[in-house]
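Sharing a chain and its predicted structure for anyone who wants a worked example. Both blocks are below, sequence first, tokens second.
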Amino acid sequence: MKKALIISGFLLALSVSGCSTPQAAEPQAAAPAPAAQPDDAARRDADRNRDAQRDKDRDRERDQNRDAEHDRQAHNAPCPDGEHLYTDRDGKTGCVRN
């Protein structure tokens, strides 16, 4: 029993000392950090401004097209007030009361 106690104490001390010693770190090649270009921020700002301007232009064109379509429908109404245009199954159009 003394022998088992001594062996178990030795194994316990060996395992604890093996976990507590610092292991040598593997040498790794350090990747150089990319150097920030001073004009990166300016380039990003210019990209944002260009994208914002493109969005504004697209919205303006969409609004103009919508307004033009609305005007075209309002001026091309062939029916008098109180009637609307109706197309039957044969493709004939005519005015019917609302």
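Comments welcome. Residues 45-89+94-98 form one domain.
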